[in-house]
Amino acid sequence: MASVLGMLEERETAARVRVGGLREEVARLAGVLEAAEIELDRRVIAREELVEALAASAVEATAVTETETEAERKTVPAPVPGSIVPPWREGLPVTVLAPDYQRILDMLDERRPTGQGPMKAKEITAELGLGTTSAKVEGVRSNARRLAERGWLVQETSGMFSAGRRPGAVPGAAPSA
Fold first, then answer.
1. Is 64 a domain residue?
2. Do the beta carbons of residue 131 and residue 114 sit within 8 Å?
3. Which DSSP symbol is given to 168?
4. Containing H/E element for 12?
5. pLDDT at 94
6. What is the tally of structural domains in the chain?
């Protein structure tokens, strides 16, 4: 009887060692995954910035005039992920923005009638269901800052964001990187 009990104890010990090893492997892989997500988010932001800079350069080169017809103003191309954020102006629909920007604006606009105050980027990220990894929070912060610089949002001095439209960019604000 003692040998059967001893065999069971040996098997239990082996199973504990295997579970411990697997837990360590999972923890290591979680760290690798987080680093990969951060790298992916940085590359997405870099691509968005490049597209934005190229679009701004193209706009300057073609020198768009203020004499465009009302019909031209109403025909707005569908936004695509990574598209530029135009400066807000009266009558410009939210649909000119890429879906990620629209989600941020819609969520903050929904809070305004209920009297809820401004939100931090981490709160916005969680509210949008993106998780709270630093990479996701920084991506949302970058998008919210870009919206604030272009007049779509209001950025408080505390770094919080709220819905509100104002013409033009913030005077003296540096462009987002």
1. yes
2. no
3. S
4. helix 2-62
5. 81
6. 1
Distance between CA atoms of residues 15 and 8, nearest Å: 10
CB atoms within 10 A of CB 35: 11
108 Cβ contact partners less than 8 Å away, ≥ 6 residues apart: 119, 124, 153, 161, 162, 163
- The number of helices, as runs of H, and strands, as runs of E, in the chain is 5, 2
**Rounded to 5 degrees, what angle do the CA atoms 150, 106, 75 make?**
65
Could you tell me the two tokens for 164? Answer: 């509100």
Which residue range is the domain that position 64 belongs to? 2-163
Looking at the domain assignment, is residue 34 inside a domain? yes
Question: pLDDT tens digits, residue range 71-113?
Answer: 455 555 555 555 678 888 888 888 888 888 888 888 888 877 7
Locus of tokens 């680093």: 35
- 63 within domain boundaries: yes
Structure tokens at 43: 């590359």
Helix axes of 99-111 and 134-149: crossing angle, nearest 10 degrees: 80
Q: How far is CA 44 from CA 30, 51, 142, 159, 169, in A?
A: 21, 11, 11, 23, 24
User: Residue 10 pLDDT more than 90?
Assistant: yes
